[in-house]
Amino acid sequence: MASMRWVVTKEDVAKNRLVEPGWHPVEVADFQIALSKKKDSNNAIYDFKVLSPNFAGAMIRIYFNEKAAGAMTPLLLAMGNKQNEDGSIDVNLSKESLVGLKVKAFIVRGEFEGKPKNEITDYAALV
Q1: Number of domains composing the chain
Q2: Which of 13, 80, 107, 112 has its CA 20 to 30 A from that of 19?
Q3: Could you tell me if residue 41 is inside a domain?
Q4: Burial, 102: exposed, middle or buried (Cβ in 10 Å; 0-12, 13-18, 19+)?
């Protein structure tokens, strides 16, 4: 039987930690645009790093699809973007402009394939 050494760093452990539900400061750790699974639209994909001391380093990936662009409104406003007079928001999303931005996120417990995971349901400015 073969063996293998498997090293799990403290950063690896922190990334998968379940966060206590509630408001937490988060930072955009990564951002990318990728085709949806159906390849008929684009997803804006945010990787958020939790900054709360007890959960520091936990990571949460959030997808926004361009077909439901309004769903990103709370995040865009929390990041300091302003609405135009007609109520629209016009922003240029790029890794360079987003990585490092900090906001508050309302984190809840979700589930994926029967396993618990962190999800974000709302955003607010980090004051």
Answers
A1: 1
A2: 80
A3: yes
A4: middle
Instruction: Report the number of secondary-structure helices (H) and strands (E) in the chain.
Output: 3, 5
Q: Of 74, 126, 85, 122, which Cα lies nearest the Cα of 104?
A: 126
Cα 23 vs. chain centroid, distance in angstroms? 14
Token pair for 58: 């936990």
Answer yes or no: is 64 within a domain: yes
Handedness of CA 22, 24, 29, 35 (dihedral sign): positive
Report, in angstroms and rounded to the nearest whole number, the Rg of the chain calculated over CA atoms: 16
Structure tokens at 47: 């990787």
What is the model's pLDDT at position 10?
87
We report the CATH number of the domain holding residue 82 as 2.40.50
Q: What is the pLDDT of residue 1?
A: 72
Q: Read off the tokens for 122.
A: 């709302």
